[in-house]
Write a structure and sequence with these properties.
By secondary structure, this protein is mainly α. Helices cover 77% and strands 0% of the residues. It contains ten helices and no strands.
Length: 243
């Protein structure tokens, strides 16, 4: 789904590459964090070059990785390391929730791409609905709120699990929790927010398109052609005829 493309590129790829590089290829934590930061860094720079503004999700992942690098000196206790991973990635969920209350939902860019499919008419319909429909704005905010709450809950579960579940179990269980959280957010946010918004945008675009197609020119030659001309015969009465 196109709506998940920014999330996959900015969140999924860096997190997945971090775990694959560290656990699969045996890289050190600093090296794994560094290499997993390449994609969000490139995405951030590309957005600035294209003039589309700052990529909020990409910058957020960079911040999370920087925090992880700053905390990379925490070694020795494997449970502490597992808890640190969950705690650092929880920044993503918290930031999504905060962005909703600040009026700048982080998931809106990906959501708009999915809903409008790049159509100019649907982009215009999105802007009109965002400006004039309270229901549409609530769905937009709720989409990011669902994602942020789900990811934060998943991170809390990972931190709790780090101190209550055997370490060798939590190593793979953490990944399972992440996948389940993403799938859950897709189903809940997609069904309750993305799909209704897509229908609203399509209806708005069709309404405006149908109105424009049915318009009659109001002036000029078009107006003259549209209004039938009625010729009234003039009868001349001879003077003195009534005398």
């Amino acid at each position: 789904m196109q709506s998940l493309l920014p999330l996959v590129l900015d969140v999924g790829v860096p997190l997945a590459s971090y775990y694959v590089l560290r656990n699969g290829f045996g890289l050190g934590e600093v090296a794994a964090l560094g290499w997993s930061s390449v994609v969000p860094a490139l995405r951030t720079v590309w957005g600035l070059i294209r003039g589309t503004g700052v990529n909020g999700l990409a910058v957020l992942i960079l911040v999370v990785n920087v925090v992880g690098l700053a905390l990379s000196t925490m070694t020795g206790d494997p449970r502490l390391m597992l808890a640190k991973d969950g705690g650092a990635s929880s920044v993503i969920g918290i930031a999504m929730i905060v962005s909703v209350f600040l009026g700048k939902p982080l998931m809106t860019a990906g959501l708009k791409l999915f809903v409008t499919k790049g159509s100019a008419a649907k982009n215009a319909a999105w802007d009109r609905l965002l400006a004039g429909s309270a229901r549409f704005r609530r769905a937009e905010r709720r989409f990011s709120l669902i994602w942020g709450t789900t990811l934060l809950t998943e991170c809390v579960a990972r931190v709790i699990g780090a101190y209550t579940v055997p370490v060798h179990t939590m190593v793979w269980l953490g990944t399972v929790l992440t996948v389940v959280a993403i799938l859950l957010a897709m189903v809940v946010a997609g069904g309750s927010c993305a799909e209704p918004m897509e229908k609203m945008v399509r209806a708005e675009a069709e309404r405006v398109g149908g109105h424009q197609d049915g318009q009659t020119p109001a002036d000029g030659a078009g107006a003259a052609a549209a209004v039938p001309v009625v010729t009234v015969p003039v009868v001349t009465v001879p003077s003195g005829a009534g005398s």
